Amino acid sequence: MENLKRNYKSILISVTTIVFLVVLTFINANFVIGKINAVSSETSTIEARLETLQSRIAVLEAAVGSVELVNIAALAIPEKNPSVLLTGQLKSLALEHSVSIENLSITSTSISDDEPMLTYEVNFSAIGGDYESLSNFIDGLSTILPLVNLGSANIRSVTASGVESEIRLTAYSAVYPESLPTSDQPLSGLSPQEQEILTSLETFRQIVSTPPESTEVPTRPNPFSPGI
Amino acid sequence: MAELNLLPKERTGSKDVVGFLSLTKKVSIALLIILVLVVGVGGAIYFLSVRDQSRLQLEYENLENQAQSLEATEAGLVLLKDRLQKSQTVISSRAAEESFSKQKAIVEFAPDEVTFKESIIDSANSTLEIETQNSNSLVSLMSEIFANSNNFSEIAISELTFSAAVGYAILLTVF
Do B123 and B103 contact (CB within 8 A), yes or no? Predict the structure, then answer.
């Protein structure tokens, strides 16, 4: 009887040891695999972010040259009402082609400020000596900055004054983007179409600003100096 | 050789029990080895993963600093792309300009005797009225137009009149 008891005890201890070791191995394996998975997941996230950041930096470094031309693009579609810039450009273009401009009016035609681009209707009469000068002037309108679209043109030959025209243009403005994409978002450089537009905008007629001439102020003797 | 067992008979277990205990002993040792392997290999993999993660994190932080120094370029690029997309929208919607260029081309390759009278261009119309004193120049103009017909999507004579005072007046629809 005692022998049987001793056998049972031995078997029980052995089986308990095995069960304990199985449970311990299982718990440990689960714990270690869980930890490794968590670290792998975090590493994958960092890798993805790193890749995005690397591509952003590559895009930005490649775009440095193009970004220097941002002023031209910003002039093409100004942030605010382009009336002043446009008036200067029209006058300059008219002068170049010996065309006179009359009855110039620029009115906002946008219904809401929330539109992606605000539009302005530009109406004026242009008078040229002949068809060639006036047509060159109208042709030139498509290469001025700020950009304008020809809405309508009614050109007629008038014996007394050469060629007259009634021209309607559409000018544009748009607010600048308010936010930059977050560092996790991919950034793309200029597409071939955008690069093409930028290259053509570079050739457009830009506003020539002449610095004011310095006026020489005559030096006056100091009335409080002891010599005088 | 005979099996030697000096234990009293009551202390020795049955053969089955001894075999089972031997088996459990082997299983226990195997499980212990597996446990050690799991902890050792898993720990090593975890350690290497954490080290790799730290290296990547450091690299990311360095790149983030580099990206911050390019923030002005980024702002410029975003603005540039925005303006270029809008410029593209404006330029691609030009239709009257194209009609005007076609009309201008007709006037330019017309003979000297042909004079410009009137041109109307808007979103729906593109008409050009020209005059000439003699029919020869009119024929010459038409020949030029036919020769350059590939440059026009549509060109039609809408009206042709003759009067002794003016000569021939021709109204063209040009697209």
Answer: no
